[in-house]
Amino acid sequence: MRLFFLLNLVAWPLAAWACAQGTVVERDDDDASGGGGGASSSGSGGSSSSGTGGSTSGGGTTSTSTSSGTNPYENSSLESSDSKCADNTDNDANEFIDCEDFGCTWNPYVTVCPSVENSDTLCDDNVDNDSNGYTDCMDFSCLYNPFVTVCGPSESTDAQCTDFVDNDGNDFTDCDDFGCSANPFVTVCN
Predict the structure, then answer these.
(1) Which residues pair with 169 in a beta bridge?
(2) Tell me: the pLDDT tens digits for 49-94?
(3) Closest CA to 63 of 99, 116, 22
């Protein structure tokens, strides 16, 4: 758990700054948290999303989608949607707000935060896209991200973190593995 917080303190100040420099994002009144309306916190402008990949322009983020086009990690209690990642609230009570939270920056369905290595394309291009010194599958943004499939086996979903199997072969099982315990998309280890 300490490693997770250390990574947040060291690797993400730039992401938080970039998030604060973006454009205003309108709240979605149909959001699961209900109510609201009006403008909310900041984003990265120029975002683009598509069903099979993504493209960016104007400094936006890349987003990918499942065949159904929905975010499989949308959860009203997590930082996991554009509206929740732009509401200036710590929705999952982990002391990280909006684009400072991995639930926002690692999720390719969230387009209001600056681009990080959060998709198969970005995690397989031999480029350190988020300039943190780690390239592709050596970067935790790729390695422990449940949306990334090019990095081999991992423990990064609720199902994998409760199956009593060392899915990624690192000698740690389920919630004893950082892939589960330090992952914002895993809810069973909290």
Answers:
(1) none
(2) 333 333 333 344 333 333 345 555 555 557 878 899 999 999 888 8
(3) 116
Query: What are the beta bridge partners of residue 62?
Result: 48
- Sign of the four-CA dihedral 107, 45, 122, 130: negative
Paired residues of 175 in beta bridges: none
Q: Which residue is listed with tokens 């895993």?
A: 186
Task: Say whether pLDDT at 21 is over 80.
Answer: no
CA 138, 148, 44: angle at the middle one, nearest 5? Answer: 90
Phi, psi of 62 (to 5 degrees): -95, 140
Placement of tokens 């250390």 in the chain? 6
Q: How many CA atoms lie within 13 A of 172 on its CB side?
A: 13
**pTM for this structure?**
0.42
